[in-house]
Structure formats: structure tokens, C-alpha cells
UniProtKB/TrEMBL annotation:
PANTHER family: PEPTIDYL-PROLYL CIS-TRANS ISOMERASE-RELATED, PEPTIDYLPROLYL ISOMERASE DOMAIN AND WD REPEAT-CONTAINING PROTEIN 1. This is Peptidyl-prolyl cis-trans isomerase. It comes from the Bacteria. InterPro entries: Cyclophilin-like_dom_sf (IPR029000), Cyclophilin-type_PPIase_CS (IPR020892), Cyclophilin-type_PPIase_dom (IPR002130), Cyclophilin_A-like (IPR044666). It comes from Anaerobium acetethylicum.
């Protein structure tokens, strides 16, 4: 799964050029009868529309992804048996449905006693499935809910993300990014795709899994206990990345910071 983002693939098409990708498809369907002048006019119009579309949807600023929680802020304390407590803050304004889903499940005890059923060192640890094998779980609404992506949040080391089976298939499963790897080529591509400077710096300073941006909703960030995430990631696993000794989430408590 450790793939690099390709500029003409994920970065340009997904990050900054959905309209540009649509343009390529449209141009390929142009008839031979269309004159060179008409083609030029069409291309100029589409380029302008693509630029306007990108600017309309591009976010700027800083979500404070790596800032400590403020007093009174809602946080989660995840107690993992034989390991300790992982503390997480949330980004409710950017990913409200994912946050509501996780917090509600936690308050109702849904995650208590479940395991991190998939663990991959230098990548991530995944849990939240009652079946314990990655095939189960559901949202608080009893159905899948949509993705919530933002230029302001990136799947960096310590990020809490929704696991899914594809576009808009979020349920109860989640994962915490563990890798701290940084790729200079990715930084260059992020700059070319006009990511906010704060987002680029977050990745540059902390590392992460850039190939998962735009595929998995980022809705929280570990602010204390990353060493516990690292310890869990070192757990011995079978050929399916399942820990040989269950890594149990004893409870997740929602508290006021």
C-alpha cells in the first residue's frame, strides 16, 4: 500500500484538477470536423472553468492539526490493555459526521473490548470492527456515510482516520497513522497542487501517508500517547497483519480537556 502520489494522478487530478480531468475526457470525444480555432476556444474556456472551480473549492488557513487541545475541548482517551492510554482531539468543524459517529459509538461503549485487528509497523494500526477481522461494523446511523476531505487536514503521523471499503463507505472502523516517513517528492507535489503552507509543513515535520489523502477522512489527531501507537505497531502479526496476541481496546472515554 506504500505508494507515492503521482502528479498526473492523485495530485493534479484529485487535489487540484477534477475539472481538468473532465476536460481531458471531453477533448478525447471531439469530432474531426471541429476546427482548430474552435478547439482553441473550447480549451481556453475549459481551462478557465477548471481554474475557477479549483479556486472555489480550495481551502486556505490552518486547522491547527498538531496544536494541543484548548481548555473545555472534547477529547478521547483510548485505553489499550497492557499498553496504556492514547489521547485524541477531534476536528468537528471539518469532519462533523466522522467525529459524531466516533464519539457516539465511544459513549455507548461500542468500541469497548474490540481489538486492533490489523497492525502494520511503519504504516498504521486499525480497529473498530466487532467481527475482529475487518469485515464488520456499522455507523451510528446504521448505514454508510460520506467521506469528508479537506486541504487543511492530512493523514500525518498520529492522525485518526476512517477506514473504508471505497468511496463513501464509512462505518465504525478507524485507523491511526503510525509512520513518520517523509518524501521530498511529495512535498514538491503538494506545493505544485497549492496545498496550504500549514498542511505542507505538517507533513514535512511529522511524516505520514500522503497516498491516503482524498481516500480516507482525517477527523482526529493523537496529542499524547504516540509511543503507545508505536509499541502496538511492533506487535507480532500473522500473514494477514492480525496480531498473534490480541491488542484490546478496553474502553474509549470521551472527556472535556
Amino acid at each position: 500500500m506504500k505508494k507515492k502520489i503521482l502528479i498526473l494522478g492523485m495530485v493534479l487530478c484529485m487535489f487540484a484538477g477534477v475539472a481538468a480531468c473532465a476536460k481531458e475526457d471531453k477533448v478525447s470525444k471531439t469530432t474531426q470536423e471541429e476546427t482548430a480555432e474552435e478547439k482553441e476556444t473550447t480549451e481556453e474556456k475549459e481551462a478557465t472553468e477548471a481554474e475557477e472551480s479549483s479556486e472555489d473549492t480550495k481551502e486556505t488557513g490552518d486547522a491547527g492539526q498538531f496544536l494541543a487541545p484548548e481548555t473545555g475541548e472534547t477529547v478521547a482517551e483510548m485505553t489499550v490493555k497492557d499498553h496504556g492510554i492514547i489521547k485524541i482531539r477531534f476536528f468537528n468543524e471539518i469532519a462533523p459526521k466522522a467525529v459524531e459517529n466516533f464519539i457516539t459509538h465511544a459513549k455507548e461503549g461500542y468500541y469497548d473490548g474490540l481489538t486492533f485487528h490489523r497492525v502494520m509497523n511503519d504504516f498504521m494500526i486499525q480497529g473498530g470492527d466487532p467481527s475482529g477481522n475487518g469485515t464488520g461494523g456499522e455507523s451510528i446511523w446504521g448505514k454508510n456515510f460520506e467521506d469528508e476531505f479537506s486541504y487543511l487536514l492530512f493523514p500525518c503521523r498520529g492522525s485518526l482516520c476512517m477506514a473504508n471499503a471505497g468511496e463513501n463507505t464509512n462505518g465504525s472502523q478507524f485507523f491511526i497513522v503510525q509512520t513518520g516517513a517523509v518524501d521530498a517528492d511529495i512535498i514538491t507535489q503538494m506545493e505544485e497542487a497549492d496545498f496550504p503552507e500549514s498542511t505542507i509543513q505538517n507533513y514535512e515535520n511529522n511524516g505520514g501517508t500522503p497516498w491516503l489523502w482524498g481516500k480516507h477522512t482525517v477527523f482526529g489527531q493523537v496529542f499524547e500517547g504516540l509511543e503507545i501507537v508505536d509499541a502496538i505497531a511492533l506487535t507480532e502479526t500473522d500473514s494477514n497483519d492480525k496480531p498473534l496476541t490480541p491488542v484490546v481496546i478496553e474502553k474509549i472515554e470521551i472527556k472535556e480537556y
